[in-house]
Amino acid sequence: MPLLILITLLWAASFSLIGEYLAGQVDGYWVVFIRMVLALLTILPLFKWRQLNAYSVKTLTQLAGIGAVQIGLMYLFLYHAFLYLSVAEVLLFTIFTPLYITLIDEIILGRRRLPFTWWLAAAISVLGAAIIRYQGLSTDFVIGFALIQAANICFAAGQVAYKRLELGSTQHQIQQFAAFFAGASLVSGLGVLLFGNHQMLPNTPLQWGILFWLGIVASGLGYLGWNLASKWVNTGQLAAMNNALIPAGILVNVLFWQHDTDWLRWLLGASLIVIAVVLASRQQINLKR
């Protein structure tokens, strides 16, 4: 859990940097592609080429597929949704990810029945995030809503698939993780070809500095740490932690960018998310067959 909390704070700060310095100035598809390539280059030196064999190639292919779905496809859907939704609506519609994690783990992957408390924790987490982020909706948001749910499902499916994939020790996972970013880079590169605006490339030292931070630290080290930590917690904890970014992101915006917020709603929503994580932590079962 401490690693998930640390990465949540890291991503909250990174989200603010995107909103302040990149959104509307640098094409979103290029941002994602550059982030994924930088993340791949960061982790690639750790890859153990000499350990390749028929079994490891199969595992690496599966890991690349997870990366392609969890962050590659997810970002394509997410950035396309901004054509139809406001930023507030995008944030609001991401709150269903914990429910998708719980649903995919229990029903789609055919695992044994999850404890009711984990379902309850996911629902409480969604309620807490909704209290923090709920705002009035625009009249034309059906397509955007569908795109965001597709992004949520991709991110949820990738997390569950990684958690269930047999990858060996933590050290072995680190040595293979470059395949995750290879899959994400391939898909995000396709996104640039299909949707990218080549007239909106980063062109200032500040923008490139932020992209290097996002690629090397937030993406490279962040996703590595998040997926490693997903192996150490139960599904209920992982589901609930997916919404912790919302109160953390708002807190960063208030502290560093002086954005206004409704503190009563923030405290109530954040408290519910903490309760959800604690509730999920109280029941530990082994879901592996």
What attributes characterize this protein structure?
289 residues, mainly alpha, 13 helices, disordered C terminus
Description:
- The protein is an all-alpha fold and about 290 residues long.
- It contains 13 helices and no strands.
- Helix 1 (about 1-20) runs antiparallel to helix 10.
Low-confidence stretches: 285-289
Question: What is the number of E strands?
Answer: 0
Order of helices and strands: HHHHHHHHHHHHH
User: Largest sheet, described in full?
Assistant: none
Helix content: over 70%
What is the strand content?
A: under 5%
Gross morphology is globular
Instruction: Count helical runs.
Output: 13
Topology:
Elements (H helix, E strand, L loop, with lengths): L1 H21 L5 H16 L10 H28 L5 H7 L3 H12 L7 H18 L8 H23 L5 H7 L1 H18 L9 H26 L4 H7 L3 H13 L5 H19 L8
Helix pairs in contact: 1-10, 1-12, 2-3, 2-9, 2-10, 3-7, 3-9, 5-6, 5-7, 5-11, 6-11, 6-13, 11-13
Q: How would you briefly describe this protein structure?
A:
This protein has helices spanning 2-22, 28-43, 54-81, 87-93, 97-108, 116-133, 142-164, 170-176, 178-195, 205-230, 235-241, 245-257, 263-281. The chain has 289 residues and is mainly alpha-helical.
